[in-house]
Amino acid sequence: MSSTTPSYFNCPSVGKFPDPVSCTIFHVCVNAIFGLVDVPYDCPSGTQYDSVNAECTIDPVQCPGEPTLVCKKAGIYKNPYHCGRYYRCTWRYISNRYEIKQFRCPDFTEYSEQSAKCIKSETCQQNNTDFKCVQAGKFPVQENCKEYFECSNGLNGLIEQRKSCDLYQLFDRHLGRCRNECLVKCPIDDDETEIEEGKVFIKELLEI
Questions:
Q1: Nearby residues of 120 by Cβ (< 8 Å), 6 or more positions away
Q2: SS3 193
Q3: Any idea what DSSP says for residue 43?
Q4: What residue spans define the domains of the chain?
């Protein structure tokens, strides 16, 4: 991460803090001889700072000036301010607060709390950009719950691979790994997931 030099931030205490203006900058405040010193950082390209979880992420985040998302109880809810997003509320006993994590629906769909999945929409056209590795890890594809992107460190940077979960498994978007399909709540239209499952099944039969 490259350091930046904004002059408008004042450290409230030692710790890590979001920038009050930009989604892509965060501040690390440290003790020095003459008081607190602000060390600003830029998130890696393609990521934004998640102030709730104190990390840079490729997932959607709540930027400065945006309305605050509310958690009244644990669960998954539609983002009322962005049609193509939904968020999960998880109670964390250690920090004594709800953890909020946002996710994107595929293009031209929106999250339905009634059906608990992303459904086709004629009005929600968010036009998500193509996936690009910006950090190591496993990430969901937009179109289904069977496949995922795996980003790993290579000699010349990040290596991107599109992979499929094993038969009878789906990719858990919340945990970031493949699990037994009966344990995964897929937010994508069931028909599309069944099509992908069938493709993998046929492919494995041909390889026998």
A1: 108, 109, 189
A2: helix
A3: P
A4: 1-42, 58-112+122-127, 130-208
